[in-house]
Amino acid sequence: MAAQPKKIIIDTDPGIDDAMAIFLALRSPEVELIGLTTIFGNVYTTLATRNALHLLEVAGRTDIPVAEGSHVTITKDMKLRVADFVHGADGLGNQNFPRPKGEPIEQSAAAFLIEQANLYPGKVTVVALGALTNIALAIQQDPAFSKNIGQIILLGGAFAINGNVNPAAEANIFGDPDAADIVFTSGADVVAVGLNVTHQVVLTDDDRQKLARSDGKFAQYLCKILEVYFSYHDYAYNTKGVFLHDPTTLLAAVDPSLMTYAKGVVRVQTSGITRGLTLLHDTQKRFGEVTEWSDKPTVKVAVTVDAPAILNLVMERLMDS
Ligand SMILES: O=c1[nH]cnc2c1ncn2[C@@H]1O[C@H](CO)[C@@H](O)[C@H]1O
């Protein structure tokens, strides 16, 4: 008998690669998408909510609830860093899509996460694609959340490589480093997929043209919004391809064997010039002194990835839609 599909909530800041990940989830028989929660990152939270509702309308899946997340960081900082220069001012490739008809549910993102984790203890996976504020709020508001939630698979960090905001920090962690440190040290089953992995998964211009030639509904939609993301990569990395951060992270939930993982304690730098830096202690050395990593719960950090297999899945599933 086929395994039950995994109940997944995507915490998202759509975002061009978020749109890919959401569509991929909807095209994955292994996944039951039970909700979207929204957060700032690629865009402000209000726009993330609008885009999440819009994407579900495009997919014909307005039955899936959207819960709006925090508009400020966990320390109530209102000065957010938003990457509209990566995704366009509207977050979706400057297409001026019509305003969605739907509305978010009354519950906040954190309340929705807590409710679903309580409803299906150990069975819900959160795939976190933006700043980690909503997840940290859920951890703070419900002491049982880190036990009840099945797994938290997050796109975040740059393990032993440079970041993408600055040499120290990756964008999602930099967006709310205090929240990220709460999540990493919460004791939940956390899997971090960082730039060290996602920078190996590249959608080339050839792949984009293949998508354009297919008559897949999602493929056609994505080709419209991808241009801005390609231009940004050309400018920032001098490449004619784009990194598939969010789809790669979603696929870690679909098939964990697409990656290998190191286990250890991750702490996040929350101040100074390396604010947002993620540092894994792989626990191979026993330090003589007590450190800020001592006695903290371990997490898994993705270290290698089967990039061709991931790209195949992305292409197949988006073209067949
Ligand atoms: O250069 C960048 N600055 C800020 N955000 C970026 C950049 N490149 C990609 N992303 C966005 O941040 C997440 C991965 O860190 C992804 O959502 C990606 O779209």
TrEMBL record:
Domain (Inosine/uridine-preferring nucleoside hydrolase) spans: 8-310
Q: What is its EC number?
A: 3.2.2.2, 3.2.2.3
Q: Which UniProt keywords apply?
A: Cytoplasm, Glycosidase, Hydrolase
Q: Name one GO molecular function term.
A: uridine nucleosidase activity
Question: Gene Ontology terms, cellular component aspect?
Answer: cytosol
GO BP, sorted A to Z = purine nucleoside catabolic process; ribonucleoside catabolic process
Which EC class, in a word?
Answer: hydrolase
Q: State the compartments where it is located.
A: Cytoplasm
The UniProt record lists the keyword Hydrolase: yes
User: What's the main place this protein lives?
Assistant: cytoplasm
| Keyword Hydrolase included in the entry's annotation | yes
Q: Which domain of life is it from?
A: Eukaryota
SUPFAM superfamilies, per database record: Nucleoside hydrolase
Pfam families xrefs:
IU_nuc_hydro
Query: So what does this thing catalyse?
Result: xanthosine + H2O = D-ribose + xanthine; uridine + H2O = D-ribose + uracil; inosine + H2O = hypoxanthine + D-ribose
What PANTHER family has UniProt attached to this entry? INOSINE-URIDINE PREFERRING NUCLEOSIDE HYDROLASE, URIDINE NUCLEOSIDASE
Report the family membership.
Answer: Belongs to the IUNH family.
Q: What is this protein called?
A: Inosine nucleosidase
Q: Which organism is it from?
A: Juglans regia (English walnut)
